[in-house]
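Re: Re: ligand-bound prediction request (bumping)

Still looking for help on this. To restate: I need the protein modeled with beta-D-glucopyranose bound, output as structure tokens. Inputs repeated here so nobody has to scroll up.
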Amino acid sequence: MVAFAAALCTAPVLSLSAQDHNSKTQHHPWDNKSLSPDERADMVVKEMTLDEKIQLVHGAGWGVLRAGDPVDPHSNFAASYVPGIERLGIPGIDLADSAVGARMAAYQSRYATLLPSTLGAAASWDPEGAQLYGDVIGRELRAWGTNMSIGGGVDLMREPRNGRNFEYAGEDPLLAGTMTGNLMKGLQAEHVMGDIKHYAFNDQETGRDIGNAIIGHRAARESDLLAFQIAIAISDPAGVMCSYNRVNGDYACENDWLLNQVLKKDFHFKGWVLSDWGGTHSAAKAALAGLDQEMPEDIYFGEPLKQAVQKGEVPMLRLDDMDHRILRSMFATGVIDFSPYPRSVVDPFKGRDDAQHIAEESIVLLKNANNLLPLNASSIHSIALIGSHADVGVLSGGGSAQVDAPGGNAIDPHTGSAHWGETVYFPSSPLRYIREHAPNAKVEFNAGDDKSAAAAFAKSAEVAIVFVHQPMHEGMDAKTLSLPDNQDALVSAVAEANPHTIVVLETGGPVSMPWAENVQGIFAAWYPGIGGAQALANLLFGDVNPSGKLPATFAKRDEDLPHPVIAGMDLKPLPLEVETNMGGHRIRHNEMRLPAFDVNYTEGAKIGYKWYEAQHIQPLFWFGFGLSYTTYEYSNLKVEDHGREVTLTVKNTGSRAGAEIAEVYAELPAAANENYKRLVAFDRIPLAPGESKTVTMKIDPTLLSIYKEAKNGDEAKDGWDLLPGEYKFVAGPSSSTTPLTATLHIGK
Ligand code: BGC
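Reply:
Sorry for the wait, this slipped through. Here it is.
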């Protein structure tokens, strides 16, 4: 078993303290907390009837997600509900979308904190910040009385135009797995169950329910699956959500290799596998392949599964295992012991402060020509703010990760809960907070709709700040890396009019920047959350020193990507008959879907920086890159303990306090046949001016190993192999700048 959990996290463990005043008195033998979650679950399963066993392995409907589908009166108005078993003291499971904050608040006039996108948070490279992120979601769901979050996206960024990249954690398995695992750890410490999704290879939205990802086992294990493995080892999540797509021929939710072999056997995943909403395609096949729960309905795991068990097609032991996995996760996270949760009012102030803190660590300074930044509040006279509704708000991501904006959409305040795909701005006004920082300057706003007018407006100001946007949401990908709405032309026109132009990107992920040479400053602000404007103003004026670094490479152009055109993008949708359960009635209707197609992952494990290195392509900004207002010096790289431990020294050589993210990469011996390096360790190091720190980082041997497929095709003999030979370690401030080098011979 991989030792990621021990090596990578410093997290507090789940604490069921005496202060948790809601603990129950003992009614059933399994209420005994000194027994393990597995023992307790086994005791419950023994008492369950067949109908009760079936009841736990499917949802009760779409809840508020689908009009016409009744909401179970016991549920909490979320994405679905699994009714509990009262006679056994088992509460229902309320599943709430909450990738970047709890969804569906408006339905019940509740409040939910919008956090920066998880991709943004990954740019902090801060596992403690990730735990705080999970804590915000966990405590708000708990206050609502909701006991399961279905966020936790960790699909790797193979496709920078994927509409859901903002819900994920970037292109590298170690960074993404560590950040998502720690997020989940923070969340579950609030006694709210978490899940990690979308397992696996749901790396594009185009044709997500029909696309067939084709990838070899070595590439799969060293890339996307490694991110899941790390996140699961760190957090022991209650659930893993299998994805809509097919993988090497089989749907992910009935894929024996993915679910039984890799997830349950190799990763030792103890929780349950739930399908993405409508992602179940069979009863016996799916159950035998490792799916434990159909979501959100009972089309396959209701009556058909019951019959399959009665006929012996699915052994009763397998159904028991499905229920055991659900129940042990409910016991392990404290959901059963502390149910029902006392309802309380979410603290919006604490949520906003936490969101701002995470945003301040997440926003990446990409360019700062002639040290234009930080702006000097006492000497600046005029600032022209342009574009993207920067007078009223900051952009959020859409789809099932959409959080409802307090007061409605900031650009259309009469709206309530956001419509699917609507572009929603949150009321965190950059104009307001920039004005607050520079009270003596004239700070004005121009909408940026007309580039000539915007350029004329910018010309008269000392500094121009252009906000650019790329709204993204589930269910669609961007066709191109180019910014939408002619914004490249807007930036170019402003930059031509004002030599002191700064661009702030509010994007779902990487975009191209044909104007990058012509502007003086660039910030990647991602979707910065409800404290976004305050965070940004603090960074612009130097109250906070930028520390974020890119969790994904920014390519110069679509042609440089492994797939210049997204697979399936050029296909035409056709009507397809699908069945749903509407309020207890099965209905068949046509939906427009793409015809089946393959997504050939020809790049294998070479995602992001690995691709650009291997192909010798210069991107616009490399993975791991980010500037600061101070300077750092690296020295003394040492690799010890057979490559399991690395030590280096970083000094703050400038005059401002800062936090430097030190990155360590390894190149494997020639026998690995890899022409790129891998991130193997990182640390975020706070440093006062002049201060120097020597830090030691652990390296899990898996990160230095290759995944070897047995020659005779016998999957049971596949496994990780730490090849003997010369390992080259390099370290520094980014994947492209690695001033330190050390080599190590690892023997057999
Ligand atoms: C998404 C999931 C989401 C579910 C419930 C699906 O369309 O892919 O991420 O959790 O809907 O809203």
